[in-house]
Amino acid sequence: MKAAIVLVAAMLASVAPVPAIAQAYWAAPAADDFAYDINAVQAPWSKADIDVSHHDRIYVSDPTSTKIVVIDPAAGNELGRIDLSKSGMAEPSFSSPNVQRLAAARDGRTVATLATRSVTLLDLATNTERGRTVFETSPTAVAFTPNGHELWVSLGDEYAIAVVDPKTAREITRVPASGGAGATILSPDGRYAFVSLTAQPSVLVVDVAHRRVVGHVASTGAGAGAIAVSPDGKQIWATRRDSGTTTVFAAKPPFAVREVINTGPATSAVNFAQRADDSFAYVGVGGDQPGIKVYRTDSLEAVTTVPLQAAPTAVWPSGDGTRIYASLAGTNKVAAIDTLTYTTASTIPISTDAQSLIYVPGAVRSGKGLANLVPSGRDAALALAAR
């Protein structure tokens, strides 16, 4: 017995402590019984073979509160909200608002969400928080590695990228990003991370395994922007809001720039939809004529522009590539765009404003997926939005 106690004590002593820069809280994820192909994800690791169904969910962050709106895309309506302020986790509580960016793990089990000075991990089977990492400053972006073993969190004000273990919500290490870490995406093979720098006109390329910077890709302009990888894993598209441009470059060394596209005023969100053998990029623009510009990824030819009621703050494809969903700034609405006709097929009213949006195929693996959702009390809000 004494030997066993000594062994356990030694094992506990060998576990690295949580870094002083972060605190973590964690709970085990719930089990499920829904068969799911982890390779069948439209973006950013794609195979267009998951039809839109009631198993799918759209998650929309509210930039002014602690809530995340949950939508059934097959029904085209809001189901309720996940309220992070009601978490059963230990302190610090989510008294601070500004739920911002969202990211989903490839297996569709977990969503990471950014808020003031923290990143929270949500178990999609139960719609509850199962982990949280707290930082000294507020994160600016978040992305999972394709295998789901790591979460890369951009800390713009600390000029670094924090690497977090999603299983424990503990910070593992940091990668310096002297130009201010912004939007981040991982290559489909998990080898490289691409980080759009906010203080420099550059995209940082990081070797994920060795945690070292291996390249810089020049972009037009610095500041805010978005970044995405094409479904075939060959291209990176990085937008810049202030310059109204999108830089397209190779996702493999030497990361050569193919073209800088003048996409338009207030260029923001970017994502892709795969249809049969064709891949298309969808780039959100604002200004006097807000909409989404569509480009072929093979020729970079401009296909069309889908007009929208307001500038899109985020765009994301359905699991089969038949729809692109866009959150519309200041409208309490999400637009569903038909990728065959390039028209708005429907508009989904929601109970809050929208900052970020992601589509998770097969998020509901058993039951109706309504557990622990807070009623939105959306009747009055939706009536107001419909005026």
UniProtKB/TrEMBL annotation:
A GO MF label? DNA binding
Signal peptide extent = 1-22
Which residue spans traverse the membrane? none
- SUPFAM superfamilies named among the record's database cross-references: Nitrous oxide reductase, N-terminal domain
What keyword terms does UniProt attach to this protein? DNA-binding, Signal
Q: Does the keyword Transmembrane apply?
A: no
Taxonomically, which superkingdom?
A: Bacteria
Name this polypeptide is given:
DNA-binding beta-propeller fold protein YncE
